[in-house]
Structure formats: C-alpha cells, structure tokens
Amino acid sequence: MNGLLIDYNFCTGCHSCEMACKVEHGFAQGEWGIKLTQQGPDQLADGSWEYNYIPTPTDRCDLCADRVKEGRLPTCVHHCQGLCMYYGPVEDLARQMTSSHMVLFTPCEQ
Question: Start and end of every 4Fe-4S ferredoxin-type domain (predicted)?
Fold first, then answer.
C-alpha cells in the first residue's frame, strides 16, 4: 500500500498542493482534496515566533489514483514547491519519518 508523507518543517504555505489538486480533479469552490491550514503565529518562550503550515488530505483525496496508474506522482507531490511531500510504499515512508513534524497519510481500504 502506498501513502503520502508530509514534512511540515519545510512547508512554506504556498498553496501549490491545494491548487494542483483542485485543478486536477475539477473540485468546485469550497471543495478540497488537500487543504492547507496555518497554525500560528505563536510566540515562544524565547520571544521568537512560530508558524506552521499544515497540508491535510481530505476525504476526497484518492492519492490521485488515475495519475498513479499512469506512473505519475500524485499532483500535490508533483507540484509541491517546498519539496516536503513524498509518495511511495508506506513501509519506506515510515522509515523516513525522522521528525515530530512529519505525518504519514494512507488511503482507507474500502
């Protein structure tokens, strides 16, 4: 089974994943296959500020099954400007998780 690994440490909040997905699937206004949210700004104890951008696949995400069948990457991974999204076998992606700011998404089996 393949999945999607996202490293929030390097997400710049550019919304490329959102827009690429929306165009690829023809989603209507207010519909998303992946949705970017901003956490923060939060002031830390040392006075610095923290922002996190968190792309989260929604229930509409099928990891671009049609693109993958053609040998291509999911469109969010292909268009990621921060190079923080990875697609591949879940076991391989799990081994790449080296930070608490990384999340592994897998499709639900139906």
Answer: 2-31
